[in-house]
Amino acid sequence: MLQSSAILNLARLHTRIVNYHSVAGALLFIAGVVAIMGIITSEATYPGYSTRTNYISDLGSTRPPNSIVKQPAATIFAVTLIASGILTLGSAYCFYHSLVQGRDRTVLSILLALVGVSAIGVAAFNGGTEGSLIIHTMFAFLNFTAGGLAAIISYRIVRSPFRYFAIFIGTTALASFALLIIGGVTHSVLSLIGPGGVERWVSYPVVLWSIGFGGYLMGQSSPPIHKQQSDGQYHHRDRNKA
User: Fold this and answer.
1) Does 121 fall in a domain?
2) Does some domain include residue 238?
3) pLDDT at 14 over 50
4) Is residue 93 part of a domain?
5) Mean predicted confidence (pLDDT) in 145-160
6) Confidence of residue 104 (pLDDT cuts 50, 70, 90)
């Protein structure tokens, strides 16, 4: 018992010196800003690009057999995804080493890591060839799924009202992803915004969640979160009252 208490105290001391909680939030916040601003910049440098008819990945390369790569849009897009992916991986690492306790910390850290890895994978395999397109699609699907689930899982960690926004954002992203897969875009009112618009309803909500969640983590004055056995929910502990 004494040994466990000593280990916990050492962990708390280390976290106060290196505030993983805030660092995780800062990295995730920057990752979201880099992603959305980078994509906007890439779109602006792509002649004739349409957010309605073009997929986001078309910024890197259109689909085979007649693939088109336009510069500097493709390079901006690739650098954006790689930078955002690395920042998200760093956030996942820091969040895992924060003083958030419970299984949800591990699950959310893994999901954030998958978002980061898949973003890098999407950039590395731009889908310009048949083989590259298969790998690119797998990474894109992983990114969309992990991102939506991460937003939903964060519900168990954050406070109201952000927890309800997180559920809404994650559900919206996954529902839009399902419509994109089954081709519901062509048979509903979503046809008004086209496949490119629907894909942005999958991707952008997760990016906005990452900015919001990152800001939330940075805004917590005391990173420790402990689990109440009575209701199974997570509550923040004010260090001044501890």
Assistant:
1) yes
2) no
3) no
4) yes
5) 93
6) confident
Residue with structure tokens 């590259």? 132
Listed in sequence order, the residues at least 6 apart from 106 whose beta carbon sits closer than 8 Å to its beta carbon are 96
- Using only C-alpha atoms, the chain has a radius of gyration, in whole angstroms, of 20
The yes-or-no verdict on residue 12 having pLDDT over 80 is: no
Number of domains the chain is built from: 1
For 178, residues 6+ apart whose C-beta sits below 8 A from its C-beta are: 184
Tell me the C-alpha distance between 165 and 76, whole Å.
31
Question: Is pLDDT above 90 for 72?
Answer: yes
Beta strands in the chain (DSSP E): 225-227, 234-236
CB 87 within 8 A of CB 210: no
| Rounded-to-integer distance, Cα 124 and Cα 3, Å | 46
Domain span including residue 132: 18-220
* Omega within 30 of 0 (cis) for the link into 224: no
How many CB atoms within 10 Å of residue 131? 11
Nearest to 52 by CA among 178, 204, 200: 200
Question: Residues for the chain: how many in total?
Answer: 242
One-letter identity of residue 189: V
Beta bridge partners of 227: 234
241 Cβ partners below 8 Å, 6+ apart? none
Provide the pLDDT for residue 227: 42
pTM for this entry? 0.82
Examine residue 99 and state whether it is found in any structural domain, yes or no: yes
